[in-house]
Amino acid sequence: WDSPERAQRLVEPFIVSGVKVLDIGIGTGQAVSSYAEKGATVIGIDHDQAMLDTAQSVVGENGVLRQADINKELPIADLENS
Predict the structure, then answer these.
(1) Cα–Cα distance between 31 and 82 in angstroms, integer?
(2) For residues 70 and 2, what is the distance between their CA atoms, to the nearest angstrom?
(3) How far apart are CA 55 and CA 44, in angstroms?
(4) What pTM was computed for the model?
(5) What is the secondary structure of 5-69 as a DSSP string?
């Protein structure tokens, strides 16, 4: 399973403090842990609350996590101008 590492390599050059990263299907937050460490705000969506609880410990205060089903309207209206 190399997807988190592959995703990080692709977007790493664009991750700087203050940027916002949206991860749909964040799971445990593996793919975005280094982004939060660099000061990016990680917006994560997942259907499983247990996964979100784990991801919250990974992204810390730089995380905005929401439980949602991606087959329905996502709860991001307050992020529309982000």
Answers:
(1) 21
(2) 23
(3) 8
(4) 0.81
(5) HHHHHHHGGG--TT-EEEEET-TTSGGGHHHHHTTPEEEEEES-HHHHHHHHHHHGGGEEEEE--
CA distance 12 to 1: 19
Cβ contact 65:56 at 8 Å: yes
What order of strands is seen across the sheet that includes strand 20-24?
A: 20-24, 41-46, 63-67
pLDDT at 79 over 80: no
Cα 49 to chain centroid distance, Å, stands at 14
- 4-59: per-residue pLDDT in tens? 778 778 888 999 999 999 999 999 998 888 899 999 999 999 999 999 999 999 99
